Amino acid sequence: MTEAVKKPKKQLSLKGKENLKKRRFLEGVVVKKSSDRTIKVEVVTHKSHPLYGKRTVRSKRYLVDDAEGKAEVGQTVVIGEARPLSRRKKYVLIDKK
Prior knowledge:
- The protein has no helices and five strands.
- It is mainly beta.
- Strand 4 (76-81) and strand 5 (89-96) form a beta hairpin.
- The termini are far apart.
């Protein structure tokens, strides 16, 4: 079996956000802007079958807190884990691309 080659991740600038260094980051596309502080982000990952090696596409949608309200539908964004802000909202917007 061949191992999947992992691409090196782009380093984020976390100036003034030192408390975010140990958290998980995800990159996705904004698919919906629910209110002035909440966006829905779709994260697409590729998973390889353990026996046959076929790659399948998995996607998951996360509710994200956008404190400034500047993210628009279609933008690629980086989100990070945070403390639970509501029942389903556990991520915050880190950076827009």
